[in-house]
Structures are given as structure tokens and as C-alpha cells.
Amino acid sequence: MLRQIAAGDLRSAIATVKRDIALPAVLGRICPAPCEKVCRRRDLDGAVAICLLKRHVADADLASADPYRPPCRPATGKRVAILGGGPTGLSAAYYLVQAGHACTLFEAADRLGGRLWTETTEEELPRDVLQAEIEQVLRLGVEVRLKETHSPLPLGEGQGVRAYSLKTSPHPNPLPKGEGTFNFNAVLISCGATAKDLATAWGLPVGQRGIQADLKTFATESPGVFAAGNAVRGKGMVVRSVADGKESAVAIGQFLRGLPVVGPEKPFNTRIGRMEGEELRTLAEACTIKPRPAVAPNAATSEKAVEQAERCMHCDCRGLTTCKLRRYAALYHADPKRFAGERRRFQQDLRHAAVVFEPGKCIDCGLCIQIAAREGEKIGLTFVGRGFDVRVAVPLDKNLSDALTQAAAQCVAACPTAALAWKSSGQ
Q1: How much is the average pLDDT of 194-223?
Q2: Cβ-proximal residues to 116 (8 Å cutoff; 6+ apart), any chain
Q3: How far apart are CA 242 and CA 137, in angstroms?
Q4: d(C-alpha 92, C-alpha 191), whole Å
Q5: Confidence band of 218 (pLDDT split at 50, 70, 90)
Q6: 369 Cβ partners below 8 Å, 6+ apart?
Q7: Which of 15, 152, 358, 413 has a 20 to 30 A CA-CA distance from 137?
């Protein structure tokens, strides 16, 4: 998102944000920004204003003539009842509909949004912004039933999956021809702390905080019944409730497709850990060296947003989606802590105009050395050192710009771990 903002591509930025966050304009105003607390730049000259930039992107999208609408898969024929239209229910509906599942939001109040209306002020969260973001969820085709009291009851097996009926009463809107019962393939309980009473009436176990559910899959002991958000946590940040909605949608989707319900996939990751001041300054060499500006919450102009986004030090890996080491580590269940030892200090070589080299990611496969030789590089690359100390380097005390004058693109494309990578993602 930050790099897309820095490039002025807000349309791509909102698509990136909404892959994981259904309500970015809301969270951009009320989230306490835990992401900024772990921003590496925080220990250097102030964290990047990630939360404010998220809000900037979302506000620009809402103000546009054509707000972003994610693609939705073909209809699966499966229906999900979501009990509670607060941040968890709205988020779950947003991602379930994208997966092709029909969703009906049942809300006891006369409007959607739940605690977003009652636990915030107009100054903290303008009501027009909240309503506009709710509308972005509903425009995907989510059905809404307001002022509903509900009593879901298991019906038994139906076409290979357990179906549920949801009895509603009274209903302010016209019911389907004489019907007061709706059948669903799965149910998500997301009506906050009040879910305890519903769960007790339904026979679901209730703990001290809320409904007892697996916090990885949000599945209850009743097949096809899920619970998330404050319905299971009792109390928590809105950002956590929104995340629960997305993650529970993944688990519900697995259930509806007849797959093992395991929840969201956790990709293989390794992290450097805490970096020292010298390492942070080295990391910051590739980005704008400016302290965090004092930006008022309502003054995130495009110019200031670009300036702020350019402060990102790119501490994420440039090869997140392409790293072969990551892919095989996940495939073979590698444990990066099994042989823990002192890590190598962070280094990066920025002397090439377009390419960055991070020696700590290099696995000494030698592909770049072969490619440079094949392409006729006069200096090229070579192995230096012996045994465990062998490493890829530029010979004759030259630098990377001397080594890769014409083979840079091929070397970047071949590098299995993005140790050699483009400085800019647009290259």
C-alpha cells in the first residue's frame, strides 16, 4: 500500500487494503494503530503514519465517482446467516460474498454498524463516513434484515451439509410468500457480547468471555455454526473484530466447500528481529530520510501522503510472492528456530542504479554468477571465501554497478530469494 501511494496509484492501494480490511475508512480513524508500534522506523525517527495513510486511500476511494468494488466469484448456491451487523458481521459478509456465497445479515437494531455507532463520537467517526463504508459492503449483494430477533435451530442433514433454520419475529419488511423461516448452510454469530444469551438458548457452551469457539477457525462444537468478534472475546479492539470477520469467512468457506476447517493459511515467515541503530540507518538509506511530519488527522493531502509513504524503509521482503526458499520451507515444514544462532547483521548494497543486493538473503546458488558470465559481463560476479564463509561478491573491489551492466534483469528474475531485486517495484 505504501509503495502504491508513493507512486500515486491510489486505485491499486485501495485494492491492496481491501484484500484484508473491509472497513479502512473506519479503522483509519479509530484504530490505535498497533501496526505502527512495530514499524522499524519508529526507533529511528518516528513510525510511518500507516493508519492515516490507510484512511487517506479509503477517503479518496469513497469520494471517487466509482468506488472500488472487488471481483466476486460465481454463486456457489450456499447461504450463510450472519447474526449481528457490527464490524465482525460486516467484514465476514464482505469476504463471503466475494467467495460466491449468499449472505443475509440479521441485525436487532434499526441500522447496521453495531458498536461503531455507540462507542464512537461524530468527531471520532463521522456518521456519513461510517454509513458510506457500510454501503460499500452491501453493494456486493448482501441481504439485510433489520430489527430482527432470531432463534436459529439445527434442522439436520440436507444434501450433504447440515442446514439451519432461522426463525425471525417480528419482521418489519415483507417476508417471502408466507414464510417466517429461512434455511442456511452455515451460521456466524457476530452479535457482540449479547451473543451469550443466544448461545445459551441454542445450547452452545459459553465461557467467561463469550461463546466457546476455536479461535483459529471460529468453529463451535455445533457443525456449521461459527462465532467471532466480541461474541467470543467479550471485549476487544474494532480492528480485531474486523480481522475476525475476515478470518471466520475463510473458515466458513472451507466448511461450505467440504474441506477441512483449518482457518486462514499461515505462510512461512522469518524475521530479522530487533535491529540496532546502525542497521536501521543502513535500511533507511534506500528511502526518504525525513522525520515523521506533524500531519493533522484531516490534512492528509496527496502531496503529504506521498511524502509520508516514501518514508517506508521496505523492511518487508521484495520476494514475498516469488521466494522459492519460502515455498520449499513451507512445503517441508522447516523450522527457522531449530538451529538458532547469532544472526548476520543486516547489509544492503545500493550502488547499482536499479538493483539492490541484500547478502543476508543470498543462498549462494551461483545462478547470478553463471548468468553474468553468459551475458558477457566484463566484471561480473564470483564466489569469494572458503567453506561456510563463501559468499557471492563483485571481484576486484568493484561494485554492483560495475558487475551488472547488461545482465541485471536476468539476474533479478533468476534470484530465488530476491537477494538481488529491483529497488522500485515498478521496474
Answers
A1: 85
A2: 26, 86, 87, 125, 130, 238
A3: 13
A4: 12
A5: very high
A6: 380, 381, 382, 383, 392
A7: 152
Question: Which positions ≥6 away from 293 have C-beta within 8 Å?
Answer: 304, 307, 308
Cβ 23 vs Cβ 91: under 8 Å: yes
**88 three-class SS:** helix
Q: Which fold has domain 79-256?
A: FAD/NAD(P)-binding domain (3.50.50)
11-51 pLDDT, tens digit per residue, is 999 999 999 999 999 999 999 999 999 999 998 888 999 99
Spatial separation of the C-alpha atoms in residues 364 and 374, rounded to whole Å? 18
- Residue positions counted in the chain: 427
Residue 157 has pLDDT above 60, yes or no: no
As a whole number of angstroms, the distance between CA 41 and CA 39 comes to 5
Backbone angles phi, psi at 271, to 5 degrees: -130, 145
311 vs 28: CA distance, rounded Å: 19
Q: Which residues of the chain form CATH 3.50.50.60? A: 79-256
CA distance linking residue 401 with residue 395, whole number of Å: 12
User: Position of cell 530487533?
Assistant: 274
Pull the grid cell for residue 415.
534470484
324-422 CATH: 3.30.70.20
DSSP designation for 354: S
- Residue 387's contacts (CB-CB under 8 Å, 6 or more residues apart) are none
- Cβ–Cβ under 8 Å, residues 396 and 419: no
